[in-house]
Amino acid sequence: MVMFGTKSASGKCIIKSVWEGFRTVGTRVDSARLLWHPWHIPRHSFVLWLAARGRLRTLDRIHNGAVDQRRCVLCRDQDETHNHLFFTCKFSTEVWTGVNSRSQIRWSHLQWPQSWEEASRTFDNMKNPWHRVAGIVIASAVYHIWKERNNRMHNQIFKSALSTRDDIINNVRERLANLESENQLPNELMQRWSLT
Ligand SMILES: [Zn+2]
Fold first, then answer.
1. What are 131-182's pLDDT values in tens digits?
2. Which residues, other chains included, contact 60 with Cβ-Cβ below 8 Å and sequence gap of 6+?
3. To the nearest whole number, what is the mean pLDDT of the chain?
4. Could you please report the per-residue DSSP string of 62-112?
5. What's the gap in Å between 159 CA and the centre of ligand 1?
6. Cα–Cα separations (whole angstroms), residue 23 to 19, 31, 73, 191
7. CA 3, CA 26: separation in Å to the nearest integer?
8. How many angstroms separate the alpha carbon of residue 106 from the centre of ligand 1?
9. How large is the angle between the packed helices 161-177 and 129-150, nearest 10 degrees?
10. pTM exceeds 0.85, yes or no
11. Pfam family example for this protein (predicted)?
């Protein structure tokens, strides 16, 4: 069973199984908190908001019939869907691997809409700075993966997964470094993002 894990403030790992997620099926998930929390980056949250609803113009939605026009431009290996683009694509997987080590995000092998719901349930305490940071990271990763996809498709500009990861890390660090002074970040979080 693939798990979706989080770390408590004490650093102890708390594992929530996929089954725990299933247990709450039927209850409405409030994902707005994770999208629009006080530290969110508006342009990132907007793309995530569209992605969370499956509303980005991915190739599977544009080219229903033409198979050869649906290839993912990040890997050229699979058809582009929301689920592929943000999860199963080897490019995106490399990006997530690079940012997960700094955050508490551990994606399960659920499909994209269920994974987003699971994240919304896991990081639902916006008084917890780790949860806010998880929201920033998820939104930033989705934004930069989508941006890289668009740059390749429309501008023939290519960045590596590592370079995309660095853009995400820089955006998150920049946001955290510019928080209003009343926001005190835990030391471990500061260290994780090289802010000390
Ligand atoms: Zn791909």
1. 999 999 999 999 999 999 999 999 999 999 999 999 999 999 999 999 988 8
2. 70, 79, 80, 81
3. 84
4. H-SS-GGG-B-TTTSSSB--HHIIIIISHHHHHHHHHHHTTSS----SS-H
5. 14
6. 6, 17, 37, 35
7. 21
8. 20
9. 140
10. no
11. zf-RVT
**In the chain, what's the furthest Cα-to-Cα distance?**
54
Mean pLDDT throughout 94-105?
89
Instruction: Give exposure, 72-86, as e/b (b: 16+ Cβ within 10 Å).
Output: bbbbeebebbbbbbb
* Residue 95 to residue 53: CA distance in whole angstroms: 22
Ligand 1 centre distance from Cα of residue 188 (Å): 34
Hunting for tokens 């500061």 — which residue is that?
Answer: 190
Where are the domains positioned within the chain?
4-192
Distance 137 CA to ligand 1 centre (A): 20
Please tell me the distance between residue 120's alpha carbon and the centre of ligand 1 in angstroms.
25
Tell me how far the alpha carbon of residue 157 lies from the centroid of ligand 1, in angstroms. Answer: 16
Which pLDDT tens digit goes with each residue over 18-57?
333 333 444 567 889 999 999 999 999 999 999 999 999 9
